[in-house]
Specification:
The protein contains 35 helices and 32 strands. The chain is of the alpha/beta class. The chain has an eight-stranded parallel barrel with strand order 1-4-5-6-7-8-9-10, surrounded by seven helices. A seven-stranded mixed sheet has the order 22-23-24-21-20-26-27, sandwiched between helices. Helix 1 crosses helix 15. Bound molecules: flavin-adenine dinucleotide (FAD).
Length: 1017
């Protein structure tokens, strides 16, 4: 039964009293000036005062574990601190800058300062980390017990890229449980920490993260992931139960919160575990949803009739969650003002204490107000002292820990262990928390902070500070863009059950529409003979007919173009705003149909859920962006009027535009070309890629439904050789917009440029073509990040995107390590049906692609070392499945390194140094997309200046560009023309005209009269 509630306001005097006691004791427990703890706290605060210095030192600490030599260390220290851009100028900024300069001055100095820097950083890390090995961790927790505190041990983990690592991690938990339990059998019983009013407590307590025991902790596939996690977590729980060890399941990012809670409840409802009380999980009060989660957990625990523990925290991921939500256009799932999290902590904490008979309450915080509020409520509810447990992190708020221990509280210390390299993410989180302006600990270090101010009720308006949310910085050249910034379409959040259900329902809806004929979308009806129908198969199961499209004849092209010519006058005469509005309507329709469009992509071209929905989002975005850009272009219809002279600069449509699209992005890239053509006043005929014909027809039917006339936009399906070539070469076409392979693009350019059309114009060609995109991995890169990004860039959609990474250039020092990691991770990829939510990599597009794959794998054997052999999986059951392959030691000029494959085959090159890497990356005819992973600012600057690509990504994957943010397109043999999604794209579809009028008439200036006319109008 829940305890009766106690009104919060009545608790304030007790909270103040308890809080003052804690502060008083903490002051007495402060470290002496001769202790290391004193100087560590002092140093942290001094650094925290200077934001610019703090960020630079954090970057240095982050890269430090991977730096092999003192020379490297000195270079990095110098690059971070002596770039002339540091804003602070206090004593510490000058001290560190001076040290960096000395370290960089020569080998001797580097050899002196290098070890010193490592010692300082290592000592700093030890403050937060309980040791590198289980043995060190056990020694550490025994010392904790001697100081009157108990513990929970956490194993610091690297990013789990391979199943072997996940299994090792699981085993590590089991070994830890068994070894420490053995040791603990001889530990003396300490009543303060080994018992609570409700009974004895296990002496050993470990905290685990579910993401550490499986490779893909991805909420997109709750069922599949739950199965995998359950299989891994049961042996851990079994071992713990056997050994009498407590297990806490930690809480990670918001996206996996529901999944974590669900798995936790599922496993503990199983007969084997349902009467086991020594388990717990975490609720994060910084999200409004946590009140509901807490209430559901209480109900569940009551039904289970066996208590669990809940650790209430505010939450460790505030910065990354808010940035992520803002970047993706999602509502922020967390409170945005600090006082709200504090107040919510007290509210959810009250729920926890009121239900202490069903849930054992644990409060993890270093905030004296939050702790005092919980202790006051424990008393007010009449609960026995030490019903609640207090938890703190190793190395954080040590005087507070000592104070609470001296008050006979049960204090558990969260003690993570592992080496510096794997613990880096944790260490950085702690450093940020210790130095954040919002942090209670940091505020309490301020000499001036009075304890009563810090103990203020968070609901008191005097505790409120304005939200300090990260904001996008969007700057145009002065006067360039008078409009509000473009608003991107939010990415669909597939961690949400409603979105998953919507996608599943769409797949079922579209499957029910299989096996139908899809006519071309033309202004006038054409005859289609029976033998003209072509089947579009599901690449994962070619026995399934997605539908049929017509292979139109070359004879149909004349009539189609004639209709487009007829449509020009009316369409071009419409005000630009009206055309833009029609595009907005089309984007609205696409938005309404977004799941259906994505389902067509899944079935017809084999994209997985995430890729398919991302493409639809991108397509909606680009259509809206072009409507937006048209308004901007209209603004640029400039006047330059001088006395007696009026000058206008106007944009006019080119005429009829043929759009020829690729199969890899049949919606986003094709709607990009089409919407640009239409909004600028051209009429347009689309020839989609054969393999994606139905996707395109579905999409452009929505444009017609939105009110765009069929004479303005037509879709002619058929083969590239016949219809495509006829559309490109036709004498009544004014422009060809093409996306596809370089040989065809080159052929189109040759035909078109040599041809004057019937309106006496040289045909204009814009082409986005082939690529052989490279990513450079520097010797100081975070290898886990680089491997994750390269894996995704090279193998998502089976390497068939024009932005896919097909070469990775790795510096000598990390070459072998990189190959081991990526080979192991890629080897675990099993291509599967894109219809299933959990599928990462689906099939390739068609049988010829499988044949090409076989051919290139054979060549790969000769042109490099096939470290991951790939192959066609045995269970492909007729689907066009091929496995990722990796070829190492490839010469930069090898045929496989120079030819665009559009397949999941990745070449790896070894580079002597960064300059060599740039040379290798630039060798070749293409210049589309490139990437660099480095933490050395001069190297990043060199890549920016010298890597010859249209779009350079630094320290991130090279696919998934967003409209307006990462305009996409290349040069060299990768492209002719401007970038899609950028500020210059629409002009390409226009000719510009200048009109200059002499307004002087026999002694008077007629321009004024013109102004009057304008005003009257
Ligand atoms: C023993 C222990 C175990 C932990 N386990 C987990 C865990 O499993 N999962 C997890 O996520 N965290 C965990 N944490 C980390 C914990 O979430 C942070 O240490 C905690 O949020 C810091 O809160 P505080 O009360 O100590 O400090 P305070 O300084 O009072 O609060 C800082 C917190 O306020 C919140 N905040 C900051 N700025 C804002 C803002 N503008 N708007 C709204 N809220 C804001 C953030 O959550 C931030 O961490 C654990 C902490 C401890 C001590």
């Amino acid at each position: 039964m829940p305890a009766p509630r106690v009104h919060s306001a009545s608790l304030e005097p007790d909270i103040l009293r308890i809080g003052r006691t804690i502060f008083g004791r903490a002051e007495r427990a402060a470290p002496s000036i001769f202790s290391q703890e004193y100087w560590q706290t002092f140093g942290t605060n001094a650094i925290a005062d200077d934001e610019s210095l703090k960020l630079r030192l954090f970057r240095f600490v982050e890269v430090l574990p991977i730096l092999q030599s003192n020379r490297d260390l000195a270079h990095h220290l110098h690059a971070y601190l002596c770039d002339g851009r540091m804003t602070g100028d206090n004593f510490y900024a000058r001290l560190f800058t001076g040290l960096a300069q000395v370290a960089h001055s020569g080998a001797l100095a580097a050899n002196l300062i290098g070890p010193l820097a490592r010692w300082v950083a290592g000592t700093g890390a030890k403050q937060f980390i309980a040791g590198a090995t289980p043995a060190e961790a056990i020694r550490y927790v025994k010392q904790l017990r001697q100081r009157g505190n108990t513990f929970t041990l956490d194993v610091l983990g690297e990013t789990i890229l391979a199943d072997r690592v996940a299994r090792e991690h699981q085993q590590l938990y089991i070994d830890l449980i068994e070894s420490i339990a053995d040791d603990a059998a001889g530990w003396q019983d300490l009543p303060l920490i080994d018992s609570a009013p409700f009974g004895g407590l296990p002496k050993v307590n470990i905290s685990i993260k579910l993401s550490a025991i499986v490779t893909k902790f991805d909420p997109i596939d709750p069922e599949g992931v739950s199965e995998a996690v359950l299989e891994r977590v049961r042996p851990v729980l079994r071992a713990a139960r056997r050994a009498g060890v407590f297990v806490n399941v930690d809480m990670e990012h918001y996206a996996v919160k529901d999944l974590t809670l669900d798995i936790f409840k599922r496993v503990l409802t199983e007969p084997e575990f349902r009467d086991w009380p020594n388990v717990g999980t975490v609720i994060q009060a910084y999200m409004p949803e946590s009140e509901r989660d807490m209430s559901e957990l209480i109900d569940w625990a009551r039904r289970r009739a066996c208590p669990i523990t809940v650790r209430l925290v505010k939450g460790a991921y505030w910065d990354s969650e808010t940035a992520n939500a803002i970047r993706n256009g999602w509502p922020i799932p967390l409170f945005t003002e600090k006082w709200q999290s504090d107040a919510h902590y007290e509210r959810v904490g009250a729920m926890l204490l009121e239900n202490a008979d069903a849930i054992r309450p644990a409060f993890a915080s270093h905030n004296v107000r939050s702790i005092a509020a919980m202790l006051a409520r424990e008393q007010a509810l009449g609960l026995p002292p030490r019903t609640l447990e207090l938890q703190m992190l190793t190395g954080m708020g040590e005087p507070l820990r000592r104070a609470l221990t001296s008050m006979q509280q049960r204090v558990r210390v969260y003690a993570p262990f592992g080496d510096m390299m794997t613990g880096m993410a944790y260490l950085i989180r702690r450093l940020i928390e210790n130095t954040a302006n919002e942090s209670f600990l940091r505020q309490s270090y301020e000499a001036s902070a009075a304890s009563d101010k810090l103990l203020r009720n968070p609901n008191d308006p005097r505790s409120h500070l304005p939200a300090d949310l990260p904001q996008p910085y969007l700057a145009d050249p002065p006067g360039e863009n008078p409009m509000a910034p473009f608003q991107s379409e939010p990415i669909i959040d597939l961690s949400r059950t409603d979105e998953q259900n919507a996608m599943q329902a769409a797949l079922e809806r579209i499957r029910a529409q299989f096996d139908k004929d899809h006519r071309p979308l033309l202004a006038s009806k054409i005859n289609i003979d029976a033998d003209q129908w072509r089947t579009s198969h599901h690449p994962a199961d070619p026995s399934e007919t997605v539908g049929r499209y017509a292979a139109c004849k070359v004879d149909d092209v004349d009539a189609t173009i004639a209709a487009a010519r007829n449509g020009i006058a009316d369409w071009a005469a419409q005000p630009a705003d009206a055309r833009a509005d029609l595009l907005e309507n089309a984007a609205d329709r696409m938005r309404e149909a977004r799941y259906d469009l994505a389902a067509w992509l899944v079935f017809e071209i084999g994209k997985n859920w995430r890729e398919a929905l991302a493409e639809v989002t991108e397509a909606i975005d680009i259509v809206r962006f072009h409507a937006y850009e048209m308004h901007r272009l209209t603004e640029r219809n400039r006047r330059r009027d001088w006395p007696g002279e009026s000058n206008e600069y106007l944009y006019a449509p080119r005429g009829v535009v043929s759009v020829i699209g690729p199969f890899c992005f049949p919606l986003s890239l094709v709607t990009g070309m089409v919407s640009a053509a239409l909004v600028t006043g051209n009429t347009c005929i689309v020839k989609p890629a054969r393999q994606a014909s139905i996707c395109s027809l579905q999409c452009f039917a929505l444009f017609h439904e939105a009110g765009i006339d069929r004479s303005v936009l037509q879709v002619l399906t058929g083969s590239g050789d016949a219809v495509g070539a006829a559309l490109a070469g036709h004498g009544d076409v004014d422009m060809v917009a093409y996306t596809g392979s370089t040989p065809i693009g080159r052929a189109i350019a040759q035909i078109a440029h040599g041809q004057v059309n019937r309106r006496n114009q040289f045909k204009h060609v814009m082409a986005s073509m082939g690529a052989k995109n490279a990513v450079i991995v520097d010797d100081d890169a975070d290898l886990d990040d680089a491997v994750t990004a390269v894996l995704d860039s090279a193998f998502s959609y089976s390497g068939q995107k024009c932005t896919s990474c097909s070469r990775v250039i790795v510096l000598d020092a990390v070459y072998d390590a990189f190959i081991i990691k990526i080979t192991e991770a890629a080897g675990a990829i099993t291509p599967g049906s894109p219809e299933k939510p959990g599928t990462g990599v689906g099939p390739v597009i068609d049988e010829p692609a499988v044949q090409r794959y076989r051919h290139w794998i054979e060549l790969a054997r000769k042109q490099g070392r096939l470290v991951l052999p790939g192959g066609v999986p045995d269970n492909s059951a007729g689907g066009y499945f091929v496995k990722p392959a990796i070829v190492a030691d490839v010469a930069p000029d090898a045929e496989i390194a120079q030819t665009e494959l559009m397949l999941p085959i990745l070449c790896v090159h070894k580079a002597r140094d960064f300059d060599d890497a740039l040379k290798i990356a630039n060798a070749g005819p293409y210049a589309m997309v490139g990437g660099v992973f480095s933490r050395m600012p001069p190297h990043i600057d060199a890549a920016k200046a010298q890597l010859d690509v249209g779009l350079l990504y630094v320290n991130r994957k090279i696919t998934l560009s967003r409209v307006d943010r990462q305009p996409f397109g290349g040069h060299g043999q990768s492209g002719i023309g401007p970038k899609l999604g950028g500020p210059d794209y629409l002009q390409e579809f226009c000719t510009s005209r200048v009109i200059s009028e002499n307004t002087l008439r026999h002694g008077f200036d007629a321009a004024d009269a013109k102004q009057e006319e304008k005003l009257n109008a």
